[in-house]
Specification:
heterotrimer, A mainly alpha, B mainly alpha, C alpha/beta, B: mainly alpha, two-stranded antiparallel ribbon, globular, C: alpha/beta, 8-stranded mixed sheet, 16 helices, about 45% helix, about 15% strand
């Protein structure tokens, strides 16, 4: 087992170092890299659920909860500290994950996906229409927060938020990978292969799934706070079904077998969208759609799968 | 809300429900038979509308009456070509695999179709309302309605409902489709070509979506993004009814259409909330939908 | 810690180097980045805006450019979404080192990009976004609005309505549910309450942006029978509202006020009947009564029609204003610098208080207190005219900018509350088609 993980760990180290260093040479990449890292954290949550074979088509709701936590703090309490935004966002997202999770873990497959979608669309419609609280479709601006009490100039802040996102991303990556290798992670995979047998072992499949669900909600909230601060805005689109679809898209693109897939997928997705929007403004959706189809048809384990295909051939997983 | 406004709301609800039903029933049918959530359904709706517009604009100078068959022809063309292409070349390779992959394929198709739509038909709003203008207006309690919206659309919806029911229950092809839905292996064992059934079903579903779009054309302006809202709405209707339930979808579409209309009269801000709130409430109580039936679990 | 301060030092050094490199030499070209909608519903403004920019830049370069230097344009699609927009904006400013930006059409985009432009110290001309709050909330140095904002636009429409139809009793609003729809109604209704308090608002409808169907809203309005229906909708939404209302007789039953309807007149053709009050977001109309016999104006309009197939609409004229302001600022800065090429900061200084004229309407002034443009407003009534397959504007009033724009240093809503009914007694010239 350890020898098979090594190439992944090496790849992870290389990737994260590149994320830390490249923007120093090309400052305009700072925002892009920070966004990739923040979104990848959310996608880690999707990957956790995918281990159990369940796709949440409403995960944007936890992303939106995190983003609006930061936005509401700024709107009603004045500019706060990034640490507090993260705390509030993650707590609210985790709590909502628990509440929603209690309902949804009773369902499987398409019904799981549908109920998640329904919850997220309810949240979206509230964010969109409760104009006097949420400012409606245009969203709420998020002013630059202080970081651990310090205020930074605009230029410096870009780098600060990048390194904060990077730190959180590395921690989340390590946490999720450990989780997947732990007994709880194995039990999640057991839900996918044969849930009844898991119950025969005396474990509640619902509890296992709920634990995974709450973890993924937590990650979604963290990602939401980061993106809101990076973008400087939180909009109802953060909770729309296309955003949930985007996260699932990235998960499949990167590959769900390993936590690094979230980062690989997010990097490719954002980079293609960024450059396509600049150069081929009329065709970026087309390109991304074709890329996804190609990946699904020819590389179903995603980009990570392409890399580990040779080592998988040597033994079972 | 007095009785006059209530009757007006009912009329608005019925005409809205008719369009939503046409799109949702196709989605429901596709899921019922193929077990695939077709995210591209909204794009098929949009393409049906756009092609109907192109044809209408072309034939209107010759005779406005030709716009009616133009709507029908556009739906069939989109249903057969786009629907057929998607099923045969993009979905068929992934049938044995996880459901999420099939769903994502249709999601990717949605993205591609959305982009192509802008490249083909541009970004300016397009409209062609001859089919609506040729029919007279009707007055109800001093409020004018177009008979297109309160008579024709519900009529088409009812005909579609009855037609589908008849097709599925009383014709051989319908029986074949039901057989494959019930048990694909057994059906294949007795010689039914399940692949052809899937193709046929997908084409029927796609045609219904395109028909919804074509019929919506005379009432609205076509803009980029019209498929995105329709897909999640039709999904809400289909899921609330119970995926695969034809009659149930009609009832649910009516329910959601009426609820929405009443809400606009009483508390307009909650208009978009209604379908999704209903979906959550129904699914929490009856996870298979209002009319869904459960299947025995295979160990 | 060290990594971060090294990064900041490296970045600061690079920025200083870049700044000094620009200071004294005349550059080979002036690079302008323009954000506009190339996708999504607002592309009905964005695509003509882009065509206008390209046409104007070509003309400008034929005459030698700005201060003898040709201009080079690049475009960013606002429709790609907030993340791509901000990232791309930063890229063009920091990597491609554009000299100025024109951003944006949507107030949402402006809300995001205006602070970024200020941070990056690049000259930004808000060429089309209308939210008054942006420049009222904070004083900016690098951001200028080369057009009016929602307050004078709505106020002009209101005064026109009160002057031409002084006795209406009930009004309803149908606006798109987003910042523009909400703010424009807040401005209009606050001023209305101040100037005609006895008017009753019978319905406030805010359908979702991009709603494909207004049938239920139309039914409700047909039942309520307001004297006036007010809307600031645009694009496909306005098209649908007007057509569905027309199909069911609502346009005949109530007087419709299309506050920014000028951009839909050509597209709707005869589906937009006579007798509707239409605003133009500025004094923009391709048959502008004070300019319609001017040769340059006619040539511009004809060239645009030949190029795109339609007569210009207000985003086209707004784009012309942005170019005119940029040229004006550079010319003023060059003169002040004794003929030598100015630094960026000198161009910014020159822009404050600048008065410029495109020749397609009245001149515009950039108010030095808050960089807000003072632009005249044109409002008219639709009427059939021979030679056009759409209804043109008649009985046009052109309102002077200073009278109807919020005084500097005040918030719009506060100022509107202080207006009195005699405000409408202002003397405004009326022009026939």
């Amino acid at each position: 087992m350890p020898s098979r993980l090594q190439p992944m760990t090496v790849a992870a180290v290389i990737g994260f170092t590149a994320a830390a260093v490249a923007p120093l040479f090309v400052p305009s990449w700072t925002t892009l890299v920070a966004l990739i890292l923040a979104k990848a954290i959310v996608v880690l949550g999707i990957i956790v659920l995918l281990q159990a074979g369940q796709v949440s088509f409403g995960h944007a709701m936890f992303f939106a909860v995190g983003a609006y936590a930061a936005a509401f703090w700024g709107k009603y309490l004045g500019i706060g500290d990034l640490a507090l935004y993260l705390l509030l966002g993650s707590v609210l997202a985790t709590l909502s994950g628990l509440v929603v999770g209690l309902f949804v873990v009773r369902y499987r497959e398409i019904f799981f996906g549908m109920l998640n979608l329904a919850f997220s669309m309810v949240l979206w419609s509230l964010l969109e229409k409760m104009f006097h609280y949420t400012n409606g479709a245009d969203g709420i601006r998020v002013a630059r927060p202080t970081v651990v009490g310090m205020t930074f100039s605009p230029d410096a802040f870009q780098f600060v938020i990048l390194y904060v996102s990077l730190t959180l991303a590395v921690v989340a990556f390590a946490l999720v990978q450990r989780y997947l290798d732990s007994p709880l992670g194995h039990m999640l995979r057991a839900i996918k292969s044969n849930e009844t047998r898991l119950e025969y072992l005396g474990t509640s499949a619902r509890r296992v799934l709920l634990a995974g669900y709450v973890l993924s909600a937590f990650l979604g909230g963290i990602g939401g706070v980061l993106v809101a601060v990076i973008q400087g805005i939180a909009t109802p689109e953060f909770g729309f079904w296309t955003k949930s679809g985007e996260f699932v898209f990235i998960a499949i693109l990167g590959g769900v077998g390993h936590a690094l897939g979230a980062f690989a997928g997010a990097a490719v997705f954002e980079i293609v969208r960024f450059f396509a929007a600049a150069m081929l403004a009329n065709a970026w959706q087309l390109i991304l759609g074709v890329v996804l189809i190609v990946i699904i048809l020819f590389a179903p384990n995603g980009l990570i799968g392409l890399v580990t295909r040779s080592s998988r051939a040597k033994g079972d997983n | 809300m007095n009785s006059t406004l209530a009757i007006l709301a009912i009329l608005d609800g019925i005409s809205y429900a008719a369009l939503v039903f046409l799109v949702s029933v196709g989605l429901s049918l596709i899921f019922g038979v193929l077990r695939v959530v077709n995210v591209a359904h909204g794009s098929l709706y949009a393409y049906g509308a756009y092609l109907a517009a192109t044809l209408s604009i072309a034939v209107a100078p010759i005779s406005p009456l030709l716009t009616y068959p133009a709507l029908l022809i556009a739906s069939v063309v989109i249903g057969v070509t786009c629907g057929g292409f998607i099923e045969r070349f993009l979905l068929r390779p992934v049938y044995g695999r996880e459901e999420v992959l099939q769903l994502l394929i249709t999601f990717a198709v949605f993205m591609i179709m959305d982009n192509l739509q802008r490249l083909i038909w541009g970004v300016q709003p397009i409209f062609a309302s001859e089919p609506l203008k040729l029919l007279p207006n009707v007055r109800v309690f001093g409020v004018t309605y177009t008979s297109y919206q309160v008579v024709l659309l519900p009529l088409v919806a009812i005909v579609t409902l009855v037609g589908l029911r008849y097709f599925l229950r009383y014709t051989l092809s319908g029986a074949v489709i039901m057989a494959v839905t019930e048990d694909r292996e057994a059906a294949t064992a007795i010689g039914i070509d399940a692949q052809r059934v899937y193709l046929l079903t997908f084409i029927i579903g796609a045609t219904l979506a395109a028909l919804g779009g074509a019929l919506a054309l005379p009432t609205t302006s076509l803009v980029p993004g019209m498929g995105t809202d329709m897909i999640v709405l039709s999904f809400a209707v289909a899921a609330t009814a119970g995926l695969g339930q034809i009659e149930g979808t009609a009832v649910t579409a009516l329910m959601i259409g009426l609820a929405r209309a009443f809400v606009i009269y009483i508390h307009p801000e909650f208009e978009v909330l209604v379908p999704y709130l209903l979906m959550v409430l129904v699914l929490l109580v009856r996870p298979l939908g209002l009319f869904g039936t459960s299947k025995a679990r295979k160990i | 810690m060290r990594l971060k301060s090294t990064a900041v030092a490296v970045f600061a050094a690079a920025a200083m180097f870049a700044a000094t490199a620009h200071a004294q030499d005349k550059p080979s070209e002036i690079k302008i980045a323009i954000t506009t909608f190339l996708s999504g519903p607002a592309s009905v403004f964005g695509v003509p805006g882009k065509a206008a920019a390209e046409m104007i830049a070509e003309d400008l370069n034929k005459k030698g450019g700005i201060g003898g230097v040709p201009v080079k344009l690049s475009f960013i699609d606002e429709g790609a979404g907030g993340e791509a927009l901000v990232s791309n904006y930063r890229r063009v400013v920091q990597d491609e080192k554009v000299d100025a930006t024109f951003a944006s059409i949507s107030s949402g985009s402006c809300n995001q990009l205006v602070p970024v432009a200020e941070d990056l110290k690049v000259m930004n001309l808000m060429w089309d976004c209308g939210a008054a709050s942006i420049l009222e909330a904070k004083k900016y140095r690098y951001n200028f609005r080369t057009q009016a904002n929602a307050t004078p636009e709505m106020l002009a429409v209101l005064v026109y309505l009160l002057k031409t139809k002084p006795n209406f009793k009930t009004i309803a609003v149908v606006n798109q549910d987003y910042a523009w729809g909400r703010e424009s109604w807040e401005i209009f209704s606050t001023a209305l309450k101040a100037m005609k308090p006895d008017v009753q608002v019978v319905a406030e409808l805010f359908p979702k942006f991009g709603a494909p169907d207004y049938s239920t809203e139309v039914s409700r309005l047909l039942a309520l029978r307001p004297d006036v229906v007010f809307t600031t909708s645009w694009g496909g939404d306005l098209d649908t509202l007007v057509r569905q209302s027309g199909q069911r007789g609502l346009l005949q039953q109530s007087t419709f006020v299309l506050a920014i309807g000028e951009s839909s007149i050509q597209r709707l053709g005869k589906e937009l009947p006579e007798g509707l009050i239409v605003g133009a977001r500025g004094d923009h109309w391709f048959l502008h009564p004070e300019k319609k016999d001017d040769a340059a104006f006619k040539a511009f309009n004809q060239a645009f029609k030949t190029r795109t197939g339609a007569w210009p609409i207000y985003p086209v004229y707004h784009m012309a204003q942005a170019f005119s302001a940029l040229s004006g600022a550079y010319d003023k800065a060059i003169k002040a610098n004794g003929g030598k090429w100015p630094t960026r900061e000198q161009v910014i200084d020159a822009a404050a208080g600048l008065e410029f004229a495109t020749g397609f309407g009245r001149p515009v002034t950039l108010r030095p207190e808050d960089n807000q443009g003072l632009e005249a407003q044109l409002v008219g009534v639709t009427k059939a005219a021979p030679g056009y397959d759409f209804n043109v504007l008649d009985n046009m009033m052109i309102f002077d900018a200073k009278t109807i724009t919020t005084p500097a240093g005040t918030k719009s809503v506060e100022w509107l509350k202080t207006l009195k009914p005699d405000f409408i007694n202002m003397n405004v010239p009326t022009f026939k088609h």
